[in-house]
Amino acid sequence: GLTRVVDKREAVQQERVKEEARRPQWEYSSETDAPSQKLSQQASLQSVNRVEFEFPYGKPQRATLIMRRHPRHGGDVLLTVERGQFNCGVSDCAIVARFDQGQPAKWAVSRPSDGSSTAVFIRDWRRFEQQVQRAAELVIEAEFYSQGARTFSFDVGGVNWPPGAKPKPAGKS
């Protein structure tokens, strides 16, 4: 009776702990910019979920959110996938993002100057970065060439950005 209920609760709790341990975490890196001798910094996070594109892209993949600060080039925020092509028209290129339980909003994005189709830069990167720092969850929907709209979820809570800053409590403004 009671022992079985307690055992089941403990098993559920252990599964929850294992699941949390498997969830992607923020990764930080930095390197010295040779000309300026100042640090270039980056924070990246993979999506919790994977999506699978049809042929020729195959295999399930996660998206990656990357925030960067460079001493000479400034800052930016990118969304990348391993395989596939973000669907960007000539004039209209956007993603839809929702932070926590807020309203979904359209964010203008642009392709990298090298023409890569597996990444987009979020244009209003400062405001986006501020939203990331205040949120616990971020959901992004993006359109992909011949694959339609796909949704990625990120556990953005607890980001330590810029590196060395005190993380803000998730979900607080």
What this model shows, in words?
There is one protein chain. The N and C termini lie far apart (45 Å). The protein has 2 helices and 9 strands, in the order αβββββββαββ. It has helices spanning 2-22, 125-134; strands spanning 27-33, 38-46, 63-70, 74-81, 94-99, 105-110, 119-122, 137-144, 148-155. The protein has a 9-stranded antiparallel beta sheet, with helices on one face. The protein is of the alpha+beta class and 173 residues long. It is globular. Strand 5 and strand 6 (105-110) form a beta hairpin.
Residue runs with pLDDT of under 50 for 5 or more positions? none
How would you describe the shape? globular
**Strands of the biggest beta sheet: in what spatial order?**
1-2-3-4-7-6-5-8-9
**Share of helical residues:** 10-25%
* Number of separate strands: 9
Quote the beta fraction.
Answer: 35-45%
Distance between the termini: 45 Å
Radius of gyration: 19 Å
> Helix tally?
2
* Mean model confidence by pLDDT: 87
Structural class: alpha+beta
Order of helices and strands: HEEEEEEEHEE
Biggest β-sheet strands, sense, barrel: 9 strands, antiparallel
